[in-house]
Amino acid sequence: MKALYSVTSLLFSTAFLLLGHGMMLTLLPLRAELNDISEFIIGVSGSAYFSGFIVGCFLVPRMIARVGHIRCFGVLAAAMIITALALEMLDSWLAWLSLRFVIGVAICGLYAVIESWLTSEAAASSRGQVLAIYTFITLAAITAGQFLVNVGPLDSAMPFSLAAIFMALAIIPLGMTRRIAPAPVPQTQTGIRLLYRKSHSAFFGALLAGLVAGSFWSLGPVYASSTAAQPSDVTWFMIAAILGGALMQYPWGWLSDRIDRRHVLLALGIGVICSSVAVALGAQQSWYLLAVAAFGATAMCIYAIALATAADVSSSDEFVAIATSVLLTHSIGAATAPIILGQVMTLLGPQYLFWSAAVIATGFSVVLAVFSRQPRVVSVEEQTPFSAAAADAAPASFELDPRSAEHEEALLP
After folding, report:
1. What residue spans of 199-318 are helical by DSSP H?
2. What is the DSSP letter of 157?
3. How many structural domains are present in the chain?
4. pTM confidence score
5. What does the alpha-carbon distance between residue 315 and residue 322 come to, in Å, rounded to a whole number?
6. pLDDT digits (tens, 9 = 90+) for 241-252
7. Tell me, what CATH number does 40's domain have?
């Protein structure tokens, strides 16, 4: 309880920030479609967002080192607010690409501030608890944001203004905290080659997660809008996918602690194939939202299992670098897929978003099946215990992860 009390302001800031950000994730593709921006350009704007996230992984630690956590949070939150309001006023696709890139940089930085502060405040004995609550708040706030998307007409300023208000509220708890700011975030260290060499399955699993989940966040609302009978249908589409992913994180993790994780990754890939086909065929069917939830329950869980697979073959001092590489591999996939699938949707129709996801998952499932036949470096009994992880985190969160070297050292007698 003491550990939670010490990070209360951070968790309130997280909740407010992700309420607004959760709204923006769905609002932006829908508003772009309303502005007659093609699916291809919407996909490119989604790619710009994830590209900004990648850049933020390397840029933001320097910003924090220069001006400190609280000032950096205030500046980046202000950038998010300005960007949200500017996107509401502009309909130029060039402006949208630039502004979505800014959002990617800013949200990565905001995550980095929050997560590095959590790292500083949480003792080794309570880090697992703090990480679980942080993950729950992240998912709950993004889900709650979906309910607020339809607070006003999409062509009005109301939804964007409300999202900006929530993001502004996020500045207050952190800005008023009496806690001493932690030390600057260390520069991100990566080793994508090391990741590939250590675990082919983790590398391809992370890439698959990025390709499928990135295209969903960028283009999913556009697809849902094309099949929706009323605006609230888009909200329920997004909520079904998010809740499916949230509810199945631990069941998949529990299973992966008991069998070869590579087989779990393969099962998830096959699950993406089946659920994508079901979503593509299920519009207007009574079981449609169940298919969407099944898609979320598979596609949104691949990242955490890929990270756990990488952790199994990482030494404690390698974990942060390899985990960061898993995140960046995921982000590269997420930045690439929307460009390709946006063009596919423009040429063939929105329904081909999920047909394309099925094709991508089929290719990667074949690759994962090949690698799963190779001998393992570690046995099932030697696997690192599963820890839930979100793909929309910053590298700073890996210092908080119970699998990091610092945590392991703190538990030594």
Report:
1. 200-227, 232-256, 261-282, 288-299, 302-312
2. S
3. 1
4. 0.83
5. 10
6. 999 988 888 888
7. 1.20.1250.20
